[in-house]
Design goal:
Length: 346
């Protein structure tokens, strides 16, 4: 038995895009960031969805480009005293929870996530209180306060395995916040899941009919889908998985081309993994609809070169992540459970 709870979705105001930089300015900021990283004993921890120039800079300077699970692991074990997290707010908070002794800086503290915004702590906590018999599993894309209310944190790379495990123990589950991932996991495991109705504004926009047409146009292409996408998109997939799993699938599937239903920032690492293959963005508009995000997260796009340089330059107030010690200790428990569980799967 599974149930899906209706939650009134907010309309998310999109942030202003960072100003485009000339190539001279870009070169200037790249060099400035490289010297600041050394000066401040800092390292860049970047998500796959940031712009390719940010991912390239992270790689070039010894940082990491990864999914949120690997970002958390990398930041915790790296010896740098400052982590520059290029991603969205919850990723910075997770880094701080795991590494309280480190400075955690972000290019902007306004880089949000529609899943995080759509799962406010007070409502969510009330919802959990109404179902005390259920184990609370929250996706990494949540605030520190929502994590602190949970029994488990999970990322998409281990979601099916974790829910299978909890289901085998006979546990009934509250899943939050992504409704599509919740439904996907429920279908894969048959677990008893009560699901919060959040959605990712990027993945929610992929369009079924347009994707069918694209498949007909590129019959040799495999369709790769992130499970934050609607069920009808997942149904058209040759491979479904987290960002790292999709990169692996692009590499291992025999098809010469891929239609990819996730944020197009992933193309930088995916193309590195299989340079000989053609990659196409899955359609986000069509049949009278227009896209708002066009397969690129507007908050991830806020992580520009200028903002990274400013974060490292020192006005900590506008860039530093703070999590109170009381909240940190609570949120650390379900996060550590996730990391231990991920380790046990290796
Ligand atoms: S791509 Fe979606 S899930 Fe990822 S940060 Fe942006 S809004 Fe959140």
């Amino acid at each position: 038995m599974s149930e899906f709870i209706d939650f009134d979705q907010s309309v998310y105001p999109f942030p202003v895009k960072p100003a485009l930089l000339s190539s001279d300015k870009k070169a200037f900021y790249r060099e400035r960031i490289k010297s600041l990283l050394i000066e401040k004993n800092a390292v860049i921890v970047a998500h796959y969805y940031t712009d390719s120039e940010i991912q390239a800079l992270a790689e070039e300077t010894g940082g990491c480009v990864a999914d949120s699970l690997e970002m958390a692991r990398f930041g915790a074990r790296h010896p740098a005293s400052t982590l520059l997290v290029a991603g969205v707010r919850f990723m910075g908070e997770t880094a701080k929870i795991l590494s309280p002794e480190k400075n955690v800086l972000m290019p902007t503290l306004d880089a949000q996530c529609s899943l995080d915004i759509g799962c406010p702590e007070e409502e969510f906590s009330r919802f959990c209180d109404e179902h005390p018999d259920r184990t609370v599993v929250v996706y990494a894309n949540t605030s520190a306060a929502v994590k602190a209310r949970a029994d488990w944190v999970v990322t998409s790379s281990i979601a099916v395995e974790l829910i299978e495990h909890l289901d085998s123990l006979g546990e009934k589950i509250i899943w939050a916040p992504d409704r599509h991932l919740g439904r996907y996991v429920q279908k894969q495991t048959g677990a008893d899941i009560l699901c919060w109705q959040g959605a990712c504004i990027v993945h929610d926009e992929f369009k079924t009919q347009s994707l069918e047409k694209m498949k007909a146009l590129y019959p040799e292409a495999a369709v790769l889908v992130h499970p934050e996408s609607p069920q009808a998109i997942v149904d058209l997939a040759d491979a479904v998985g987290s960002t790292s799993q999709l990169i692996k699938a692009a590499q291992t599937l025999p098809n010469p081309s891929m239609i990819v239903a996730t944020d197009k920032g992933i193309f930088y690492k995916m193309q590195q993994a299989c340079p000989e293959k053609s990659l196409y963005i899955a359609p986000t508009a069509g049949e009278g609809a227009t896209c708002r995000t066009c397969a690129h997260c507007p908050w991830m796009a806020m992580n520009g070169l200028q903002a990274i340089a400013e974060a490292l330059e020192g006005n900590a107030e506008h860039h530093q992540i703070h999590v109170s010690e009381q909240l940190r200790k609570k949120a650390l428990l379900p996060l550590n459970k996730m990391l231990d569980f991920a380790e046990s799967l290796k």
